[in-house]
Write a structure and sequence with these properties.
Length: about 150
């Protein structure tokens, strides 16, 4: 009886030290988001844990997801137009991405990996075209607000 109890508590302890399973998050590529903004990713800002994946879903056609500003050690990605792509985020940091046809219309997104990563390179943000720059500034503000909550 005593042995069984010992084995059980050891098993429970082992289970508790196993890191949380990697999660998959979905981002939709849309002609209009729930707030009526044209050509958007939704959610456009995501905070995830290292090892998680994000699946970009072609809910509306004619969009893609590709990285723009990413941490140095991270791998770039480039999804095809109208196709689903799943990206794994192992490195902590901020990842800015865009839809190639609609970046100038503000179709950009931001993913925060980890709790308090290095900020996004501001000089690179300033180079984003058209509405992408202001939209990215909004997303960075959203990330900051969530970090200081
Ligand atoms: Cu698009």
């Amino acid at each position: 009886m005593k042995t069984v109890a010992l084995i059980t508590s050891a098993a429970v302890a082992a289970m508790m030290t196993v890191p949380a399973m990697a999660e998959d998050h979905q981002v939709q590529m849309l002609n209009k988001d729930s707030e009526g903004r044209p050509m958007q990713f939704e959610p456009a800002f995501l905070k995830i844990a290292p090892g998680d994946t994000v699946t970009f879903v072609p809910t509306d056609k004619g969009h893609n997801s590709e990285s723009v500003i990413i941490p140095e050690e991270a791998e770039a990605w480039k999804g095809k137009i109208s196709q689903e792509i799943t990206v794994t985020f192992d490195e902590e940091g901020f990842y800015a991405y865009k839809c190639l046809p609609h970046v100038a219309m503000g179709m950009v997104g931001l993913i925060q990996v980890g709790d308090d990563p290095e900020p996004l390179d501001d000089a690179a943000v300033q180079k984003l075209p058209g509405k992408a720059k202001t939209r990215m500034a909004e997303l960075i503000a959203e990330a900051d607000a969530k970090t200081t909550e």
